[in-house]
Hints:
Blueprint: H1 19-22, H2 30-33, E1 46-56, E2 62-69, H3 76-80, E3 83-85, E4 88-89, H4 92-107, H5 114-119, E5 122-124, E6 161-163, H6 173-180, E7 185-187, H7 199-205, H8 214-217, E8 234-239, E9 257-259, H9 273-276, E10 280-282, H10 283-288, H11 292-295, E11 306-310, E12 315-318, H12 324-336, E13 338-344, E14 350-351, E15 354-366, E16 373-375, E17 383-388, E18 398-400
Parallel strand pairs: 5-6, 6-7
Antiparallel strand pairs: 1-2, 1-15, 3-4, 8-13, 9-10, 11-12, 11-13, 14-15, 15-16, 15-17, 17-18
Amino acid sequence: MEVTRRRSAPTTLTAGLSPNSKKNTPYSPPELAARAGHLPHERTVVLLPLALARTQDDMGRVRWTLFGGSEQGPERAFWKSSFTAPDQEQSTHESLLFIYRLLASAYGEHVKNTHQLRAAGFRILPSVRDDQFPDWHVAVLPQWTQSFLLHDEASFDDVRYLLTFRPFSRLPADARARYLAGHLHLLPFPGSLAFWGAPTYRKLQLQLPLAMQIPLLRLAGRRGGPDGIRVPQSGWLHDPHPSIKPSDVQPELVANHYWRTHRWNRVHRYDDELVLSPRVDHVTKVLFSTDLDVLGLYNKPMARNAQLWTNDFELLLDGPRASRAQIERAEAALVAGGLFGYRFHFPAMRVGAHEVYWHRPLVAYVSPRSQKIEVLPDAPLGYLTAYRADAPDLSQPVELWPRCLRREPYLSGL
């Protein structure tokens, strides 16, 4: 594989996932996969909840960092955006302003009040409980949704815009048929939920609490520099092994090398250290080697800043919480060769013993005017969760809400 300093993001939403991660699931059934890219009415509206946190890079800069998708599932960040504190909901008008802006921007549907929104065919279908992750389910929706709710036996004849986070295969048959026929818009685009349906990472989540962040992280290549969001490297590491057939390895998913950076690089604080860094090493060396010619003056083994798993998605190393014996076993496994998944993982911002993640929805769509992807400004703010760093319990997080200085919405007169 040719190694480049910047890996471009895949052109499709799930292009960064391995085939095993995209196989038939409730989120990507064959009937949906067969029509991918062949639905002219689809605007590919995404409401992707990102997992963000502040981390410190090796230049001493504190940066907002992308950890991937929300480990709290695809819908909680969106619904929690309607609140400003526990049990304290923002006004119905403020919540609906976002829906008005989204329909106007993505579909050219201009509405100004609840009556017009209902007349335009906007409805909400509550999600269903996920057996493996029951805490993802939001049982009680915000008050503003009540006049738009549908049940499974309802008629979808007058529905044009359906807001739902259900896996496509668990939608009512009438809704699925109308969507595939081009008569119904689904918000979000059902294919964008596939990150939370990847069976391989769902298996890994049983051993690695934040593993469901990883599928969405694979969309983005490593990113440094002082501007924008920091993105740690993730990918697959491949060294020849008798049990791995070369034909089974997808070269585009393999990232065997890592650009070394450190705080003593001769770069300005406003430079991108990834562009100017001259040092490239194999990931195995970066993680484990203590040879002097590898370490140099400043480099150190980075196993504590990495998480590794096998080709069968069994946890191999959780670096931040690993013992010395676990690190040594992981090193022996990588030296022996094979195919291993990994991500570099840097400590999230801390409040006492808790790590804090901001679950912020990314709202984007294919513009009907330019036919290009556009991000909707002033999207919902989401919420924050805090877990104990030594033993994160995703079922009982401490919940917090961001308070930001916000300009008036540009369509506030609606």
